[in-house]
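Render this sequence as a predicted structure.
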Amino acid sequence: MAVVLVAAGVAGFLIFGEKPSPTTPPPTVPTDTARPSPRPDTTEPPLGPDQVAAAREHAEKFVAAINAKDEAAATALTCEKQRPGGVYLTAVEHAPVRLAEKPRLVDVERAVFDVEVEPGRLFALEVVGPETWCVFT
């Protein structure tokens, strides 16, 4: 019985199934292998060495305020000038702290420095500029 059903299925496919037309052209593959022109680079270069040095100088002042436990001086160095920020509030408990030699990150308008509050424990200090440097809180 199963053989009859299989045979009937095959016969039906052969009779009613789609057959490729002898006039159907084969699919074409694009022959244009030219690559699109690259997009222009619209990103600005990161801060230059003089700007990084100025950002570092501002970060050093902030770290000095932490080590002196001078909340007013730290607040004056922030962008909002309303509060000293989380880095100050945490780091002041561990003073003296130190600023890393080189920034962790430099981009178009900021430099991020590590402040070591104890061996192996770092906090990111983001200094924003370059027109007027301030600590982002």
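Summary. Residues 49-135 form one domain. The two ends are 82 Å apart (CA to CA).
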